[in-house]
Design a protein that fits this description.
It comes from Lebetimonas natsushimae. By secondary structure, the chain is of the alpha/beta class. The protein contains eleven helices and eight strands. It binds 1,4-dihydronicotinamide adenine dinucleotide and (2S)-3,4-dihydro-2H-pyrrole-2-carboxylic acid.
Length: 250
């Protein structure tokens, strides 16, 4: 059995990913505070559910998917020593997690919301004894990248965890731009979605892509001048820096 503590956005995205990947959902348990919410999860995903109060984690594999600030409360409501604790909490280091929840092995992972479509890229670190098992579990929700340490998970959070929200804002702005110059919204949205799909398939370095698209005296060069004039590159760089710094304050 694999247990997930929490039934929020990320927990549900992981459940969807596991289901897509044909994980045996009867061997998944969801643990939470609210009986009604647990009943809904049970119906939606065909999993077993358990109330958090007094839940015994002994020898179990647990994915912790609650709010980072809930760590203290969780530690007071559960009992026992888990086999492996997989934490997806932003900003909570392995050392900190170890203080609150007892387990033989610890893994810290940073997936993203694309887990729901088995398309997350998940950064993972922790005890090498369970590296293979961690890679196996998180491969159900997409690709897995093993990183060196906790700090790299915080850095990955800025790109992988939060990244979909940043790209959503950029995508929305691109589509708005299309509407501004005269496209129907439906077409602008379709083209923008298509752009992201096309981009994900181009197997080249980022600078190579830019060089191949930017023709002398062309349309792209005009757009790039506007981006550079408005410090788009520096702004995005600072977005990543600020997001990383915030994870250190959670
Ligand atoms: N939303 C995202 O895209 C990503 C989120 N994460 C991490 O996943 C975790 C969950 O985030 P979301 O699903 O977005 O949040 P959410 O707000 O959708 O869900 C939070 C869950 O935590 C539970 N919870 C909150 N306080 C609690 C407490 N005191 N005791 C017990 N349970 C409590 C809630 O009942 C809920 O099930 C966070 O630690 C976040 O940093 C990581 C990667 C991506
Ligand atoms: O915004 C947050 O704090 C979480 C962590 C990464 C994505 N969502």
């Amino acid at each position: 059995m694999l247990y997930i503590v929490g039934y929020g956005e990320m927990a549900k995205a992981i459940l969807r990913g596991l289901k897509n990947g044909k994980w045996d959902m009867e061997n998944v348990g969801v643990v939470g505070r609210n009986e009604e919410k647990l009943k809904n999860i049970e119906k939606e995903f065909n999993v077993k559910t358990f109330l958090l109060d007094g839940f015994d984690i002994t020898d179990k594999e647990i994915i912790l998917a609650v709010k980072p600030y809930a760590l203290t409360e969780i530690s007071m409501r559960i009992k026992g020593v888990a086999n492996t604790l997989y934490s997806i909490l932003a900003g909570k280091s392995l050392t900190e997690i170890e203080k609150y929840i007892k387990a033989k092995f610890y893994i810290r992972a940073m997936p993203n919301i694309a887990a729901a479509f088995s398309a997350s890229t998940t950064a993972v670190t922790g005890d090498v004894e369970v590296k293979k098992r961690a890679e196996e579990i998180f491969s159900y929700i997409g690709d897995v990248v093993w990183v060196e340490n906790d700090d790299e998970i915080d850095m990955a959070t800025a790109i992988i965890g939060s990244g979909p929200a940043f790209l959503a804002i950029i995508a929305e702005a691109v589509s708005d731009g299309g509407v501004y110059i005269g496209l129907k919204r439906e077409i602008a949205n379709k083209l923008t979605k298509g752009l992201f799909k096309s981009f994900s398939k181009i197997d080249m370095n980022f600078s190579e892509i830019k060089d191949k698209v930017m023709s002398p005296k062309g349309t792209t060069a005009e757009g790039i001048l506007e981006m550079e004039d408005n410090k788009a590159r520096g702004t995005i760089l600072k977005v990543i820096k600020k997001t990383y710094e915030k994870s250190k304050k959670l």
